[in-house]
């Protein structure tokens, strides 16, 4: 056994090694940023200028197009999402062209990549001189502290130096409001919402208040679970007429399945999405003080779930497939199917009953072939893209104008962005058969997009 002095020395060596590796990682991140910007400049100054793409562009449109084309190439090269690739492209351009001091701090290991991207976020929207001034104040803070603490300090400093009033910036920022879904494991997903901070805080407080109002000695759900159930019922209940602000939510949320205790089997929920109501007994809606319901036009949600026929019949419990997500448990699939207003038949052998081709007789895709292709493709067929097929456009891989037929082996779903990149001549696609689509990048690299195997 070594002495305490030996252990202390070993600890120091390990710590020094960790610091060295972290600095190396930052240096590599800086090199990746440099190289990414070189690639973007190639797209903007070489491919666009020399007419490689369909339409000439100038100014901001030219830069935006170069960003999008570069991100599509980087995403396939690094096997990351296009959203991550697009952020990398934009961060790299800002660091290389406008904030070399921040890039140098990254290259020397003084700050990490999360610090650098947080700094870029703070610089965004500021006039060039103001951004440089903010950089001088923030860099020393970034070197000495964590990203959250730096961001807190940055918000105050940014408010002091920004030439526009906060009210003006808030109005502009609200134009970016949106809702996004992020799949996670075990048939679950995150739902992200970007909205005004005051509204977010009010919603958060309302969910907590309603959840606490549902707590009772017999209630086994915790506050976090109750908050989630309140939100879900508010958004999915077809008969929804929300209660008056300040009043507790009633029957429908209270009837939602209580979470089983550890070790107990799950019970089937009593209320399926889109059934029931949040309101008084018997589904009667609570009215506003003026006597009118809070929500006048409930919207029915439409989702596509592919359920193996034996699962639907209860013969086995093979998972179903939720479009744009993946496998969900058999019991949830059967519950959804029980409330489905319509079905499209899809067997896992050739006897589908769908029209698979109309050849050259029609450019338009027949309705049953559209449904068949939507179920087949599930998502945009560009490699790595996860936009649900229901939000995509059907594209003739070999264009109709080039004698391409309207058939299942010449049609594929592409999201609006990748359809545009194909139309502009940035990406090219080829059908290889058996549903395999090859995507050829501007750099000439070929990426295969095979169909995902179905559950069951």
Please explain how this structure is put together.
By secondary structure, the protein is mainly α. It is 46% helix and 9% strand. The protein has 15 helices and ten strands. The protein has helices at 4-47, 59-78, 82-98, 100-107, 113-123, 128-144, 147-161, 166-173, 197-214, 223-236, 251-255, 309-312, 330-338, 367-377, 416-423; strands at residues 178-183, 189-194, 305-306, 320-322, 326-328, 393-396, 411-414, 428-433, 436-440, 446-449. A hairpin with a 5-residue loop joins strand 1 (178-183) and strand 2. Helix 1 (4-47) packs antiparallel against helix 4 and helix 3 packs across helix 4.
Which strand order do you get reading across the main beta sheet?
3-4-5
Strand content: 5-15%
Shape: globular
Put simply, the count of helices is: 15
Uncertain segments are 239-252, 254-301, 345-358
Overall radius of gyration: 27 Å
What's the helix-strand series?
A: HHHHHHHHEEHHHEHEEHHEEHEEE
Count the E strands: 10
Question: What average pLDDT do the residues reach?
Answer: 78
What structural category arises from helix and sheet content? mainly alpha
This entry's quaternary arrangement is single chain
Main beta sheet: 3 strands, antiparallel
- Helical residue percent band: 40-55%
First-to-last CA distance = 57 Å
Question: Summarize this, please?
Answer:
This protein is mainly alpha-helical and 456 residues long. Helix content is 46%, strand content 9%.
